[in-house]
């Protein structure tokens, strides 16, 4: 029997990544829409001017990625991120949504809190257009955004915290890291420095599949949802 499809080109069409823009500044939303609209594999499916509108927009449009401003009226990006990533919200959706926080990062406490809430990374609002497009693609593929430059700022910010709450987070973080093997701890510390799997592979002389396996175990043992939360735990443990 002859296979009529043999040698035929692959005509599978991959649906574009669906994006929702959330920012109280209409000009910012327009700029983001223009930038993302230039990528054939990305589609802006909805916009919202604050966190209350965002929840409705996400429910109606079923996006893959949400670009979320932090400071907005009525409901800020922090609380909105928590709501969108809550267990109840996940149960109601057909697929997982990933949140990228947008910020100027001018010593903004809410950024750190957003990462603790489960955001999959954050970008500065002046990020170059091609890097913004690539960041959305990476997050949609399950790779949270955590650049070394951002890690440096995050470490400085976390280290600047003081008080009982910080001491409690430090104890909790160190207890979590204590559950890791030596190799897993090395991988966790590397993630805390913003290294990619490829970077970790080179630094620790491990294969990429082995690195991925270690990362998976670290996520499970630390009770983290993504690499950003691993970095937060590493930084909390290092706080003095």
How would you characterize this protein structure?
There is one protein chain. The protein is of the alpha/beta class and 240 residues long. The protein has two domains: 17-145, Rossmann fold; 154-238, Orthogonal Bundle (Arc Repressor Mutant, subunit A), CATH 1.10.10. Helices cover 54% and strands 11% of the residues. It has helices spanning 26-37, 51-61, 77-84, 87-92, 109-116, 129-140, 148-159, 164-177, 182-192, 197-204, 208-222, 227-238; strands at 17-22, 42-48, 65-69, 98-103, 122-124. A five-stranded parallel β-sheet has the order 2-1-3-4-5, sandwiched between helices. Helix 5 links the parallel strand 4 and strand 5 (122-124). The longest helix is centred in the last third of the chain and has 15 residues, at 208-222. The protein is globular, with a radius of gyration of 19 Å. The termini are far apart. The model is unreliable at 1-6 (pLDDT under 50).
